[in-house]
Amino acid sequence: MIVYGSLVSPFVRKLLGFLGEKGLDFELKGVGIGDPDPGFRAASPLAKMPAIDDDGFLLADSSAIIHYLEAKYPEPVLIPADPQARGRVIWWDEFGDTVFAACGGKMFFNRIVSPKFLGREGDLAAAAQAEAEELPKLLDYLEGAIPASGYLVEDRFTLADLAVASPFMNLRHCGLRVDAAKHPKVAAWSEAILSRPSLAPWVDKEERMMAKVLAA
Ligand SMILES: N[C@@H](CCC(=O)N[C@@H](CS)C(=O)NCC(=O)O)C(=O)O
User: Fold this and answer.
1) Which one of 48, 52, 66 would you pick to mutate in the ligand 1 pocket, going by the greatest count of ligand atoms within 8 A of its CB?
2) What is the pLDDT of residues 72-100, one digit of tens each?
3) Extended strands (E) in 42-148
4) Given strand 51-54, what is the order of strands in its sheet?
5) 87 or 216, which is more confident
6) What are phi and psi for residue 105, nearest 5 degrees?
7) Which domains are delineated in the chain?
8) pLDDT of residue 156
9) pLDDT tens-digit profile of 135-168?
10) Model pTM?
11) Are the C-beta atoms of residues 206 and 29 closer than 8 Å to each other?
12) CA 48 to ligand 1 center in whole angstroms
């Protein structure tokens, strides 16, 4: 299977962690925003990452790909069968993608992607607004929602943990670390999920890559 995407995308990172948890082999083909790569364009109708080519089966969108792979490779179970647990996992996936990653994206895109990758100024006011007004509310919500087990759903690792922890890397690239005095559960949980063997090597690679980008 070919995965098209960049390591710094929260959606690509979520998929890479999922593939690692499932123990699946794949080739990561690096693409950037607006990439003309014909394979990527064929797999991703809106040119968004990630997208896959699984032996000729083309699919885009991290959640669509993950649901496809969960059906194809059911073990270990990362999307529970229990109706309530499944509903909660889908909620957290949605929260991670459209709320948390979107908030972090306003900071990451405007402070880093725009100036460093696209060569144009970002909307720094939007980034500052997201950091000052949106992010604290989301962290407060998460702090109250993380169970004592340290996993968001069913007291075990699921897609929910991957989807919500992944965007924390983009905050890290912006120099933002969770304040453990203010949000102790979020700090410990996000650190633990990003340190899992399925994600740690990618995180390490990404940090080395971003150190070079930020130093340039
Ligand atoms: N819902 C999609 C979101 C994908 C997405 O927006 N990816 C961004 C990178 S983080 C992208 O490819 N942006 C390029 C563009 O919007 O042109 C998913 O979960 O895969």
Assistant:
1) 48
2) 999 999 999 999 999 999 999 999 999 99
3) 51-54, 57-60
4) 27-30, 2-5, 51-54, 57-60
5) 87
6) -65, -35
7) 2-72 (3.40.30.10), 83-215 (1.20.1050.10)
8) 98
9) 999 999 999 999 999 999 999 999 999 999 999 9
10) 0.97
11) no
12) 4
Task: Give the burial string for 142-181 (b: 16+ CB within 10 Å, else e).
Answer: bbeebeeeebbbbeebbbbbbbbbbbbbbbbbbeeebeee
The mean pLDDT value of the chain amounts to 97
What Cα–Cα distance (Å) separates residue 24 from each residue in 18, 155, 198, 199? 9, 24, 11, 13
pLDDT of residue 177: 94
Instruction: Report the nearest-CA residue for atom 11 of ligand 1.
Output: 48
Return d(Cα 96, Cα 161) in angstroms, integer.
9
Please, what sign has the CA dihedral across residues 176, 181, 186, 192? positive
For residue 29, list its beta bridge partners.
Answer: 4
How many angstroms separate the alpha carbon of residue 178 from the centre of ligand 1?
24
Task: Inform me whether the pLDDT recorded for 216 exceeds 90.
Answer: no
Q: How large is the greatest C-alpha to C-alpha distance in the chain, in angstroms? A: 49
